[in-house]
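HOLO CASE FILE
Compound: NAP
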Amino acid sequence: MKLRNKVILVTGSSTGIGQAVALAFAKEGASVIINSKSDVTGGKKVLEEIKKLGRKAAYIQADVSDEKKVSNLFKNIVEQFGTIDILVNNAGYAYGKPFLKTTKDYWLAQFNANFFGTVLCSIEAAKIMKEKGSGKILNTASVRGLPNTGREGIMAYSAAKAAVINFTKTLAKELAPQITVNAVAPGFTLTRNYGTYPEEVKQGFLDSTLLKRWITPEEIADAFIYLAKADAVTGEIITVDGGFVLK
Ligand SMILES: NC(=O)c1ccc[n+]([C@@H]2O[C@H](COP(=O)([O-])OP(=O)(O)OC[C@H]3O[C@@H](n4cnc5c(N)ncnc54)[C@H](OP(=O)(O)O)[C@@H]3O)[C@@H](O)[C@H]2O)c1
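Model generated. Tokens follow.
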């Protein structure tokens, strides 16, 4: 798919990986909708950066794990942009807890943020894409969602990202041939989330990779741009992890 003038929603794009993905699509000539749950300041900053590139853009605040808010988000997009061509389900966060201290509410909160947001936005986007006969859905998974690299302290997050990976592959079957569905599984990518980690823990993360360095959000964005352009690829998970899984 050529990206110029395509309409793209990147959920969770006020900062971090989502911000880099939104900017990368804008540089390719796309119209971009930026979203976050509560970080309005960050979202508007990204909006200004994209407008400076001369692209059409909007910031829409919405909690993507809330069904009603997701429905309104897509109504708003159709009103402002007429359609949606590419959905990037990126919103999410990892909140750790020792397993024996976890509760159903904790597990639900992690699944709401990391899995149900992806499902709800995919339903709304697929309705529009099916009707016009084309579209792409791209998900942010995680190396923690792959079979052997879930992390004990963030087990609910790992399970939710495993669900995203299974969902990506099954949705690719469900929505073919008009719509492709793929995911990127990032490894240790330097965003605000590592700000509070002690230096030795961060070094331990990097030592557990082959390349011994952080992945940049822009390197994750490159994988999304590839998947957005690739018309022959569906049900694929691209791992961008500096060799973490291999090691
Ligand atoms: N960084 C890594 O090492 C890494 C590795 C593997 C996977 N990932 C995944 O990559 C994605 C982005 O991570 P990141 O490190 O860039 O995170 P980040 O810097 O914390 O950014 C997360 C973004 O998601 C938004 N968000 C969170 N919950 C939301 C919700 N319910 N509705 C709408 N927006 C929501 C946040 O906005 P608010 O602040 O307003 O909530 C923010 O814009 C996540 O899915 C994460 O699990 C990250």
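CASE NOTES: The first helix runs from residue 16 to 27. The chain has one domain: 7-240.
CLOSED: yes
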